[in-house]
């Protein structure tokens, strides 16, 4: 099914919102957010992340959705087409390329962590009874330090992603997201209640919401920017591709707000579920990629019904990850389908296989594993890929997208597409013309210069 053909549209506003929220909400919220917040010292990072998400993220979501809906092709095709219509350089198509490539790189390591969640679902079925902090830590390092389990689960996760994308928009993407997202939300609330009743909840609240602005280094600010873009799926072609399947009668402004609100709510809920346990059991908040995997299992091992709740949690987390990974595979697939006329099944198979291969490096690059000692600019393979996409490609992609619509696309065309009130439009326009490019540029500059 090609973008732009009749079937390749969302069947309703609700399924579109679920798909976009599905793309936004994922490992970025539940795995990455707590670990980044933990490493950056908590509340100051959280506040900057929230400010970026709403002030810059929402206007950029609106921008990408409207570009996608106007172009109705893959991000590469849409950007080239709109640039041509506006009589601008075809070089603007590079924004599309950077998105498709970035999504591909993310997919390669996202699927590895997605595999971890699948593997932990199986571990949860066996039960985490009696696990203490040391036990949970060694369980995790043992798991990522060996080759077989992580690679098999990476393969299974990528296989599921490929299967759904191969089935197309209504047959695959929509069906997958409509049930999973509400279920995950409900379960997270339950976990927060549990953490509030049994864990070090006051410490967690203080950690997440009482800022110490002394901790706000340029590195923390760029991390917060990268985190907010990553979490909202910005600048990676995903949102633009989903915009291409969007009907003209859906209002883009309220949709973008809904997506961002759902996204940051889930991130905060994840923080509130995880940090009370982290503090209660003396786990290091800056524990890195293993934080979720080393904290929650302890709680599941102790709570009544923990076996079921733990299994459900990792099942839903896997699903949240899958509704994001399909949006990471979709941009490249829609490009092959559209521009190369390769059918959807073959495209999905080709891209997924390539991303799987690249992901092997991330899986084996974990501490204690075969490539665990490899360092790229001082970082592990997975961290280096994340740095390239989150801290470089996403901010730059977002900045150029904002510059493009702010300065090189006709104002009237954008106004028609967005259908906002005058005041709302002026606000959006100021952000994309000035605030977003300047803010991103300054953050960038401060990291490179300071
Ligand atoms: N937003 C997803 C998450 O938070 O897990 C990850 C993601 C999906 C990033 C799609 C980028 C993207 F294009």
Automatic annotation (TrEMBL):
Domain of life from the UniProt record: Bacteria
GO cellular component, one term: membrane
Topological category with respect to the lipid bilayer: Multi-pass membrane protein
Lineage: Bacteria, Pseudomonadati, Pseudomonadota, Alphaproteobacteria, Kordiimonadales
Pfam families found in the cross-reference section: SNF (PF00209)
Native source species: Gimibacter soli
Keywords in alphabetical order: Membrane, Transmembrane, Transmembrane helix, Transport
Name of the featured protein: Sodium-dependent transporter
Compartment(s) where it occurs, according to its Swiss-Prot or TrEMBL record: Membrane
InterPro entries, sorted: Na/ntran_symport, SNS_sf, YocR/YhdH-like
